[in-house]
């Protein structure tokens, strides 16, 4: 596929998204951008959420991680299912009962303005990091397919793609995204299915042979025993916590669910989405196994551990993947194996086209809703204004913020994007987990003024614990627990208790 062909595909795809945006904005109201007028069919939201949840992270990183990690991601996926049940039957009814647009306004009513602002800022930091990582990952692939072949500078390509997202979301926001996510989810699933079909044509036994390959593969395991980082039960627990926090306490995901007609339909949407997500994640892991088994058997893809000198001058062993490109073996990051197979001619042209469409869909199904939710939270939670002038200004501002962070990540060039994403959000989402846990599960009245300091202490101490103790995803639960302890220790004390303390002294 040439760079010009890739450019035409992307332009046609965005033209389709802009067309959907135009149609959905015809009967928009002032609230459409934020709430979708509360008219979205639950099944449409559920299907669209699949694409938003998968994103470029699952589409690329999960298949690329399976050689080293096996099915280690699967227990976490099972945990997601139980976490989403808690969201469906505890958080969704609460948000609808309070008629919330931004879910963080709950904290203002429960604790006070400092808690409210702390929750919103925690989300903004988390979502900016997460959305930027997702877009960065896809921009790396677009650089191979589009930017370099056409001579487009990396920064120009990133800026234009974010600008195109702004174009089709600025008018109706979440109302448009509910519909565009449906198209994007279909494109992602079709791309994965088409790749599996192509692999079946390379196997003499067709689909039956693919199932045999999966069953016999050493990668169809949890790659370890009961070590902390390999314990499937711990992985499931982490999945429960992550689902609750990264969906139920996340304005991005919740804003889509709050476009449903009522609480019952929104809960139904979450339930069926969680059921479908388990086999879909298994399919992506299976796709990764099939890619490795197929091309490693042919000798086109190799793996070895090599010694390198890290930034501290220490000799460490790191994984090295190499893929044959013509007559030479080229080093590729594990996040780039799937797209490199398409770029280096291992896929037929039709599949390369389908892959590129799926990749674009995976990127923008999460990026467009992230931009909308960031705009919503900034308007309602930070500026506390919902007028059109403020909304448009913030929408533009958030677009440039995402662009800036992506350019920072370009210089960092972090490997293993999926794991880096979860690690970072563990530090910023932890205070949210603690605040909502105390707010919903207890009657404690916290010292509102102390909340920002407790949140910062929780995030910093969690970072240090993770660094020195080698903690993994469980840091999110620990982070939340530290916040809970801080909120209880510095709770608001009643006049009766203060008088009692004076008497005791």
Q: Can you give a write-up of this model?
A:
The chain has 505 residues and is mainly alpha-helical. It is 74% helix and 5% strand. The chain is built from 19 helices and 3 strands. Strands 1-2-3 form a 3-stranded antiparallel beta sheet. The relative contact order is 0.17.
Keywords:
505 residues, Sodium/glucose cotransporter, 3 strands, globular
CATH class bucket: Mainly Alpha
Helix and strand succession? HHHHHHHHHHHHEEEHHHHHHH
Give the fraction of residues assigned to helices: over 70%
Instruction: Name the strands of the widest sheet in spatial order.
Output: 1-2-3
Any idea what the CATH superfamily is called?
Answer: Sodium/glucose cotransporter
Instruction: Indicate the CATH architecture.
Output: Up-down Bundle
Please identify the structural class as seen in this structure: mainly alpha
**CATH domain fold name:** Sodium/glucose cotransporter
Give the low-confidence spans. 224-228, 496-505
Mean pLDDT comes to: 85
Task: Work out the helix count.
Answer: 19
Shape: globular
Domains, number: 1
Largest sheet: 3 strands, antiparallel
Q: What is the CA–CA distance across the termini?
A: 80 Å
Number of strands: 3
CA-based gyration radius: 23 Å
User: What fraction strand?
Assistant: under 5%
Task: Detail the topology: elements first, then pairings.
Blueprint: H1 3-24, H2 32-35, H3 42-69, H4 73-97, H5 105-110, H6 113-150, H7 154-169, H8 174-202, H9 206-216, H10 232-248, H11 251-257, H12 263-297, E1 301-309, E2 315-325, E3 328-332, H13 337-343, H14 349-383, H15 388-412, H16 417-441, H17 451-469, H18 475-489, H19 495-504
Antiparallel strand pairs: 1-2, 2-3
Helix pairs in contact: 1-6, 1-7, 1-8, 1-14, 3-6, 3-8, 3-12, 3-14, 4-10, 4-12, 6-14, 6-15, 6-16, 7-15, 8-9, 8-12, 8-14, 11-14, 14-15, 16-17, 16-18, 17-18
């Amino acid at each position: 596929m040439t760079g010009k062909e890739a450019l035409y595909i992307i332009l046609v795809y965005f033209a389709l998204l802009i067309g959907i945006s135009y149609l959905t904005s015809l009967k928009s109201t002032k609230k459409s951008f934020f709430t979708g007028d509360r008219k979205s069919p639950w099944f449409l939201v559920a299907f669209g959420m699949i694409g938003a949840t998968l994103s470029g992270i699952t589409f690329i990183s999960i298949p690329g991680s399976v050689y080293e990690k096996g099915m280690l991601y699967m227990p976490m996926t099972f945990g997601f299912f139980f976490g989403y049940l808690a969201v469906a039957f505890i958080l969704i009814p609460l948000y609808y009962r309070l008629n919330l647009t931004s879910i963080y306004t709950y904290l203002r009513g429960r604790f006070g303005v400092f808690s409210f602002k702390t929750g919103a800022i925690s989300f903004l930091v988390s979502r900016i990091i997460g959305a930027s990582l997702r877009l960065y990952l896809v921009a790396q692939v677009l650089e191979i397919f589009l930017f370099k072949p056409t001579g487009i500078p990396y920064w120009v390509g990133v800026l234009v793609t974010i600008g195109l997202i702004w174009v089709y979301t600025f008018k109706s926001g979440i109302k448009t995204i509910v519909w565009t996510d449906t198209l994007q989810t279909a494109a992602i699933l079709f791309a994965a299915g088409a790749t599996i079909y192509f692999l079946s044509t390379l196997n003499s036994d067709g689909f039956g042979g693919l199932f045999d390959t999966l069953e016999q593969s050493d990668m169809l395991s949890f790659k370890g025993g009961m070590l902390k980082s390999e314990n499937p039960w711990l992985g499931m627990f982490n999945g429960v916590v992550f689902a609750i926090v990264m969906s139920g306490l996340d304005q991005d995901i919740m804003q889509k669910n709050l476009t449903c007609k009522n609480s019952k339909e929104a809960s139904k949407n979450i339930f069926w989405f969680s059921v479908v997500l388990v086999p879909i994640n298994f399919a992506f892991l299976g796709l990764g196994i099939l890619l490795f088994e197929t091309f490693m058997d042919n000798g086109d893809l190799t793996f070895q551990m090599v010694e390198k000198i890290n930034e501290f001058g220490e000799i460490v062993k790191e994984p090295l993947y190499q893929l044959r490109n013509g007559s030479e073996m080229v080093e590729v990051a594990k996040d780039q194996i799937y797209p490199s197979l398409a770029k280096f001619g291992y896929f037929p042209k039709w599949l390369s086209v389908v892959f590129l469409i799926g990749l674009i869909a995976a990127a923008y199904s999460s990026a467009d809703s992230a931009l909308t939710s960031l705009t919503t939270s900034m308007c309602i939670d930070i500026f506390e204004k919902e007028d059109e002038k403020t909304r448009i200004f913030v929408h533009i501002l958030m677009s440039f913020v995402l662009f800036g962070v992506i350019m920072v990540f370009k210089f960092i060039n972090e490997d293993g994007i999926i794991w880096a994403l979860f690690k970072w959000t563990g530090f910023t989402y932890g205070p949210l987990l603690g605040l909502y846990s105390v707010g919903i599960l207890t009657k404690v009245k916290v010292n509102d003024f102390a909340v920002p300091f407790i949140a910062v202490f929780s995030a910093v101490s969690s970072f240090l614990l993770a660094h020195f103790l080698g903690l993994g995803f469980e840091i999110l639960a620990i982070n939340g627990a530290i916040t809970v302890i801080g909120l209880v220790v510095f709770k608001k004390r009643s006049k009766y208790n203060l008088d009692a303390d004076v008497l005791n002294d």
